[in-house]
Design brief:
1 helix; mainly alpha
Length: about 55
């Protein structure tokens, strides 16, 4: 295998792994907010998120 091809494959693999990691974490965060929408802090709210969350 040519060195430049090996380097490109390594970079593509690293980008794919990081993309998969970010996508999985984004899915978990979205699921957490969907499961308890009342626990999300609102920007203009007088009170922060519920203490029971």
């Amino acid at each position: 295998m040519i060195a430049i091809t090996q380097k490109r494959l390594a970079i593509a693999g690293a980008v794919a792994a990081v993309s998969l990691f970010v996508a999985a974490n984004a899915q978990f965060i979205a699921a957490a907010f969907r499961s308890q929408p009342a626990c999300v802090a609102v920007a203009d709210a007088a009170v922060p998120a519920k203490r029971t969350c």
